[in-house]
Design goal:
18 strands
């Protein structure tokens, strides 16, 4: 592996580029492990507004495992991959749930060998992440659930009955207190002693606890006492949003207060999965606002509630969406380009992760889950290979340029079965550290809108969105359907472009993938340039286009 220094690198001479097909490396990557450690630490620690450009991504996961037990993606495996030169943000299940009895937590921490893990992370000077349940769940269990109504953090309905779901109008101090319990405990204190100065710790909440929905505010005695009935939806969403901002920030403040080491307090981020970032369904149908907290002031209050958030780049098993039709994650995530721009205005250092799932579970001796996407593709005569998965992942990455790409699998997923797919994802991350051209466009490229068409999701859009670019799919001659597309029309080729420079000396990086088959001589239309003929494999490929030289050249690993 060519060592890549973290400086802004110019585009490589077109004549120097060699062949590359977008595949993850099949073998361990050569190179100095210490360089990989440094690269991970530097990129994960960067802020979003460094002059160098947008930070390079890292790969991570939701599936944790112990040091020795083969179930899941154990830390030993993570460190071995990093030592081989792969750019991972290590992930550990967060210990210290306040509702777990001390003896059970002691046994859990011992069985997972947390001290051994932390010593190894410290030796390598690596950042890491803690994956967790929803932190606020403790507020809906004893002793908080048993508090009197005026002090209870849960919903108190108009009849005075307490419901086990948190309220945006309950006592704020209890959220801070609950947060502190998550970190002010002997297990986290010991881990901080073993590794007192990590460059970054990313705490990740699953964020799926029961909460009072904005549409149900009139069922809350607190809301009715404060505001009364008959307010419109915008008012209710605003009340809920402001309440959640204050309480989730108090929860995180308490978690930070509970940390004993100064570097942990300074370098920790508290981010969330569900509801913290992203509105991929915006405009798809008339009821989408019901699932949002959109107001005239903001599309999404998440960036004011959290240090970061994950958007779901999911081919959910329960959804009709696929990776080869118009109704796809590739099309839906174009909405999140607008969301990202607003998030960075509201919170310039907002950490954005891409949560990835292909709708498949791989558990030994277990039948496929209902609606399993790979089984569905098989019923259509298709195969779902790691190459197809990697091509799909890349499109989402380059559309949104996340800080981290975190794959989801269930906690019983078998590592050996999942490995080829996860390594395809890792390869999509690693190539940015190997290739100066890709790196330059990731850091400072501009996503190219295709203004010949509008995004198909146009129902009841917020005024702030109506004039924003949301369509980035390049026209392709094999995509024969006329606009506006319908949900189940096939999209043979997904392609997008990044731009650098100014006319007449612009350069573009095209990324294209073909989910169902390798395709030759596909003609793409690059806005303000014209037709570009390329070959598009299932795994995806990159091409560099020079305006000055009128040249189109494949981009290759190591260039």
């Amino acid at each position: 592996m060519k060592t890549v220094r973290f400086v802004m690198m110019g585009l490589t001479c077109l004549a120097c580029l060699t062949t590359w097909h977008g595949h993850a490396p099949a073998t361990a990557r050569a190179g100095d492990a210490a360089t990989t450690y440094r690269q991970i630490a530097e990129e994960v620690s960067r802020t979003n507004e460094k002059a160098i450009g947008w930070p390079l991504p890292v790969a991570s996961h939701w599936c944790g495992g112990s040091w020795e037990v083969a179930r899941g993606f154990r830390p030993q495996t993570q460190l071995e991959l990093i030592d081989q030169g792969h750019h991972l943000l290590p992930w550990l299940s967060q210990p210290g749930d306040p509702t777990t009895p001390v003896d059970k937590m002691d046994a859990y921490v011992a069985s997972f060998e947390y001290e051994k893990i932390m010593r190894e992370l410290a030796r390598r000077r690596l950042p890491f992440s803690f994956i967790s349940t929803q932190w606020e769940h403790v507020l809906s269990e004893p002793p908080y659930l048993q508090l009197p109504a005026d002090r209870n953090p849960n919903v108190v309905d108009v009849d005075g009955k307490i419901q086990p779901k948190v309220s945006p109008l309950g006592p704020v101090d209890l959220w801070r207190e609950a947060g502190q319990k998550w970190t002010d405990n002997p297990w986290l204190k010991r881990l901080q002693e073993l590794y007192p100065d990590p460059p970054r710790v990313v705490f990740v909440s699953n964020n799926e606890h029961a909460t009072l929905h904005w549409s149900d505010l009139e069922q809350s005695s607190r809301y009715m006492a404060l505001h009364g009935p008959s307010h419109d939806d915008v008012f209710k969403r605003t009340v809920a949003s402001v309440g959640w901002m204050e309480r989730y920030r108090a929860l995180q403040a308490g978690m930070r207060m509970g940390l004993t080491q100064a570097a942990w307090r300074q370098n920790s981020l508290f981010i969330a999965y569900t509801g913290a970032f992203g509105m991929r369904h915006m405009g798809r149908w008339g009821g989408w606002r019901y699932y949002s907290l959109t107001t005239p002031q903001w599309l999404d209050p998440g960036p004011m509630m959290w240090d970061g958030g994950e958007f779901s780049y999911y081919n959910d098993h329960w959804s009709p969406a696929t990776d080869f039709r118009m109704w796809s994650p590739q099309i839906e995530e174009m909405n999140d380009v607008v969301c990202k721009a607003e998030a960075l205005k509201l919170n310039p250092d907002f950490w954005i992760e891409q949560a990835v799932w292909d709708g498949h579970e791989e558990v030994k001796d277990a039948p496929p889950i209902k609606g399993d996407k790979r089984e569905y593709y098989k019923s259509l005569g298709q195969t779902y290979t790691p190459e197809r998965y990697g091509g799909w992942v890349r499109f989402g990455m380059w559309l949104t340029r996340p800080r981290c790409v975190r794959e989801y699998r269930g906690h019983l997923s078998d590592w050996e079965a999942c490995k080829p797919y996860f390594m395809a994802l890792v390869g999509a991350v690693d190539e940015l550290y190997d290739n100066a051209t890709l790196q330059a466009f990731w850091r400072q490229g501009r996503l190219v809108p295709n203004r010949a068409h509008e995004h198909p999701y146009q129902i009841d859009l917020p005024e702030s969105v109506k004039q924003e670019d949301r369509w980035f799919l390049l026209d392709a001659d094999v995509n024969q359907k006329q606009y506006p597309w319908e949900s189940f029309w096939e999209v043979p080729v997904y392609a997008l472009a990044m731009e650098q420079g100014r006319a007449p000396k612009r350069s573009w990086l095209i990324y294209a993938h073909s989910p169902l088959q390798d395709r030759k001589d596909v003609t793409l239309t690059l806005p303000e340039y014209g037709p570009v003929k390329v070959d598009v494999p299932v795994a995806g490929t990159f091409y560099l286009v020079s305006e000055a030289e009128k040249a189109v050249t494949p981009v290759k690993r190591g260039s």
